[in-house]
Design a protein that fits this description.
The chain is built from 10 helices and 8 strands. It is of the alpha/beta class and 215 residues long. β7, α9 and β8 form a beta-alpha-beta unit. α1 packs antiparallel against α4 and α3 packs across α4. The two termini are 17 Å apart.
Length: 215
């Protein structure tokens, strides 16, 4: 088997939280500033910690913005989160082949697990690296390195799947090969600039990369 372990970003890669995130930002900035951010302004921070976006767009109210965002996000999480075609089935096939699976996300671990549970995928991931477990965050290699430690595999044995340049940069800095997903909301040229080793037009492409027959 080409890879013994696969690390995944979560939002925008395995589950579609784009609408949830944009709505959460728009609600928050409407509440505090009487204005809304555009989807493009929100997309610019996909893959980075929430605090980074708040410090950029509302540096005078960072803690209050985070609190409002999280309150709205948690209340509306299940209703506004949707899935991507074929993801749950592909994850199950990878798991059944004995590939170790991990999540490396910039959101909190508990919220990440909640998202996985929505689509009955939490049982496939023994390792979930959340924002609070790292001092540094993507694009720094620390989150990926922590996942490698916990999954007990070498960088050369793993592949990182992501929808943002931060995912790819983090993995590459840790010595892990990368795959960019074509269903990203971010500018495709920005992902290509990180020179991904593979491109996934659909999630099923991952099976071929891993040498698994797609029955």
């Amino acid at each position: 088997m080409k890879f013994k372990g696969i690390l995944f970003d979560l939002d925008g890669t395995l589950i579609d939280t784009s609408n949830l995130i944009v709505r959460s930002f728009q609600h928050t900035f409407e509440q505090h500033y009487g204005r809304q951010l555009t989807p493009q302004q929100v997309y610019a921070f996909f893959g980075k910690p929430l605090r980074d976006a708040m410090e950029h767009y509302g540096p005078d109210k960072v803690e209050a913005l985070i609190k409002t965002y999280r309150e709205f996000n948690l209340v509306h999480h299940d209703k506004l989160t949707t899935g991507f075609d074929g993801v749950a089935e592909t994850i199950q096939k990878l798991y059944n082949e004995g590939i170790l699976l991990a999540i490396v996300t910039s959101k909190t671990k508990s919220t990440a697990i909640r998202g996985l549970r929505l689509f009955n995928m939490d049982k496939y991931f023994a390792i979930v690296i959340g924002h609070e477990e790292c001092a540094k965050h993507k694009p720094d290699p620390e989150p990926v390195q922590l996942a490698l430690e916990q999954i007990k595999l070498a960088p050369s044995e793993c592949l990182m799947i992501g929808d943002s340049p931060f995912d790819l940069a983090s993995a590459r800095a840790a010595g892990v090969k990368t795959a960019a997903v074509r269903w990203t909301q971010l500018a495709w040229k920005d992902l290509l600039a990180e020179q991904p080793d593979y491109i996934l037009n659909t999630i099923e492409d991952l099976l071929g990369i891993c040498g698994i027959e797609n029955k």
